[in-house]
Amino acid sequence: MKNLVGFRVGEVPYAVDIYRVREITKPLPLLTLPHMPAEVIGVVDHRGDVVPVIDLRIRFGLQPRESRREERWIIVKRSDVLIKKGDRLAGLVVDKVTEVFGAGESQQRGVPEIGKGNESRGIASAYSYKGKLVFVIDVDRITSIADEVDTQEVHKQLQERSEQ
Questions:
Q1: Domain range for residue 150?
Q2: CATH no. for residue 147?
Q3: What secondary structure letter does DSSP report for 31?
């Protein structure tokens, strides 16, 4: 049995493994950085960590939101075998967080191949839940675009600004 955090991007239900979720939050003050991929809308100072924020609507090639009222950020833990100290984090901007739910092996479905390379939606698995397909995203593949953000350098710059 997997415990999942459900959310929507557009009309499509997605989920992420609950063990990868650090926190769900309303949008935070964002620092926009130059020369970043469009999906990386900026970084935030979240509880002492510099966290790159990825807008999944942009990542999935969807139109901008009509309303940001229900928008939430899911702060997720990224794995990285090269970095052993602490968690590497990323924020995922989603249209709406729906629920936490469990999904068993009997509910698992085949994973469709959708897009290649940067256009891939990064689907790790699919489950049938309440009569609908829910796509579980691969956190590491979806957030790999944030590897272009040198969070340690940004953290250093933020500290220097606050000391001035």
A1: 2-163
A2: 2.40.50.180
A3: B
Average pLDDT taken over every residue of the chain: 84
Phi, psi of 163, rounded to the nearest 5 degrees:
-80, -15
DSSP state of 107: G
Give the pLDDT confidence of 69-123 residue by residue, as tens digits.
789 999 999 875 444 445 689 999 999 999 999 998 888 888 766 655 544 568 8
This prediction has a pTM of 0.83
DSSP 63: P
DSSP letter for 160, please.
Answer: H
- Give Cα separations from 149 to 3, 4, 97, 156 (angstroms): 30, 27, 26, 13
Whole-number Å distance between alpha carbons of 21 and 3? 11
Q: At a CB cut-off of 8 Å and minimum separation 6, what does 46 contact?
A: 25, 28, 75, 89, 91
Number of domains in the chain: 1
Please name the amino acid found at residue 70: E
pLDDT 10s digits, 33-64: 888 888 999 999 998 888 999 999 999 889 88
Amino acid in the structure at residue 154? V
